[in-house]
Amino acid sequence: MAQAAEPPSGTRDFLADDVRRREAAFAAVREVFERYGFDPLVTPAFERIETLLGKYGDEGDKLVFKILRRGEHEASGEADLALRYDLTVPLARVVATYGSQLPSPYKRYAIGPVWRADRPGKGRFREFTQCDFDIVGSSSDLADAEVLATVHDGVRALGVEEFTIELNSRQVLFGLLQAYRVPSELGGPVLITLDKLDKLAPAKVVAELVERGLAASDAQALVDDLTADDPDVIRARLDGSEQGKQGLAQVDRLLELTAGLPVTFAPRMVRGLDYYTGMIFEVSAAGFTGSIASGGRYDGLVAALGGPDMPAVGGSIGLERILSQQAADATESSGLDVAVTVLGAEQQVVKLAAELRAAGLRTGVYLGSSGKLAKQLKWANAQHASYVLLYGPAEQEAGNVTVRDMTSGEQVSVPFDGVVSHLRAAVENA
Amino acid sequence: MAQAAEPPSGTRDFLADDVRRREAAFAAVREVFERYGFDPLVTPAFERIETLLGKYGDEGDKLVFKILRRGEHEASGEADLALRYDLTVPLARVVATYGSQLPSPYKRYAIGPVWRADRPGKGRFREFTQCDFDIVGSSSDLADAEVLATVHDGVRALGVEEFTIELNSRQVLFGLLQAYRVPSELGGPVLITLDKLDKLAPAKVVAELVERGLAASDAQALVDDLTADDPDVIRARLDGSEQGKQGLAQVDRLLELTAGLPVTFAPRMVRGLDYYTGMIFEVSAAGFTGSIASGGRYDGLVAALGGPDMPAVGGSIGLERILSQQAADATESSGLDVAVTVLGAEQQVVKLAAELRAAGLRTGVYLGSSGKLAKQLKWANAQHASYVLLYGPAEQEAGNVTVRDMTSGEQVSVPFDGVVSHLRAAVENA
Hints:
alpha+beta
């Protein structure tokens, strides 16, 4: 197998079973988005380069795949187009392009590939599918609650049963800083350190906070309260600051609107500081490290990405993460319902296959050159066929078809004209 | 609307109705391919540049979108990757990559975007979807017949009812040249001219043939016979040459194997001379200029494109052409089943929406800031909602929900707990 024949580094070919599994997953979340009244959106694979660059920071810009100018401009070595890096910048562009032609609020979902020139690694690809849903143009708490309900149903539709939606808000985080007298210039670094409480021992987090410049006693109190079993400890502290109170009220309102869903208040959860403006969430599930979905409210982002100034809230489901987990325990490949051997009488055989297909049965006809039954049965077996049809000289004379059940090995003789209904019933009852 | 906000030249954004229409079309052909036992294949958007260049001729190479090297190599202005130009080269690469891991024969379909830096124009895009199905590894006539049957069912599944599959073969074309004593070096140009009989007057075609170097009497005889109403004229001439006889036998065999399908022998139909090796076909339909599907046998192509030397036969359905025709008479946009207004009692409203969604109803909740019913009804109307729910103070007190049928304008009062079953029944019976 020549090296050159592999797909490009960081990309994947999806053969039959993979495509079917992925398409089924896409269809399952699509169905959820549709039920919630989200509209699908498909944008081009590439955008003008100026639409993309400068939106993801210097590190992000380096990961954008740039497309060379064409024709006489090719020699310039310049790029004028670039492959989309995410589905959010195209959304902002679409909101700018179509404005009032879009429903208000604009609830859209998008499931499609994005491209990043990241160093390929385990579970890290240069072409991967994102699955985003967003509500642009609503500041309502109901929109926030709807996003949480959608992510809940979406994750469940992908077959993940046990999971928690961790909820927090920017206001809670600001309140925390206020309540524990964190100097405003240390706010960002302190929150980033607190976010590590999942992975690091509390003492290490305290040490890092002190290193960041926090007073040792404040750092210790903050970590103690955040790791306390009783969530009321942190609630009581938040109640002591204006922003903390606002944040708590917002969280409690959302907990109320999502009653019945596995949503929990996670006061130390931090996400994309320069991105989110209101509620934030992460979904963690048994068997997965890290989150399998996340999102929040990002009222300034559409404008920052070149769109109009509109409030927005949304989420992203980690389809690839969930799919790669499922691939580990993937089921058997789906095969043919019926494999039709060819032992003469080709015209009748082709007609029979046409009728089986018209009846909705997944039917393959032997297309090889061997007239030997053994070889044809080997083919049928490799196709994971449920049933094999034999129509050799003896059957042709008698006007019958031999139907072999490939699971049980049993054979029955069925009149030629009754084969389609016989097999349809057999496949339906299987 | 800023110019910069438009999608890049030659590309399109697909908003809700377009996406739904396109996805429905993709699903319809996919279902046909699956019934015929074809397997789906998805390959990356880009390939190594050396995989693509040199496969489409000089003109084709110019239309390939090339991706700039990244990181320190970006300044070189060189490209190492390129967006796929069709789905055939990736197929050849996959056959080379996976070899015996693939089923034999390998029947695959692919529906996905390809990119060409063509000059954009009416119906000509730089990003468009191709829909290919191919059988690699079978030389059987049954494979040829299966491709014809598949294209028939595929085109029908896309809603095209009246169409003809024009069938020819390379051997018939060679036989024609032999029968009419066309010097071998003129073969190619003569066939290209004959292919114009669809568009040009016979006299003009004769003139062009003479210009090409054919004797005037031969040119006249050739055109007369090809345009004769009686197909037996051309059959008789073909019978006089060895290749012509072979070609006729092949065509007749396929006509036999596709009995019942609208397949007709089209002796003057020429397709991709340096490409196809056996049967060729084109599908023409009422209301379309040019073909809406085409294909043939191309036994040398997989090897020429860098794959192993394997026989192959396949076809391509002009999805974009068919879709653009349908767009002209597109139906109304699909809206919400239920629009839920918000007049207080938000927690109960959200719960009701969750239940409606769980029952499979496409449900939207008013997410705006207005408490005025008129404004909320306007929103429901813009969402093309079939039913609107009102749960204001009076309803809350009575434990009822007002259900307004947006088509008839009628309103009924339904107990809160009976709303879901009431609406499910109403939507199902609509």
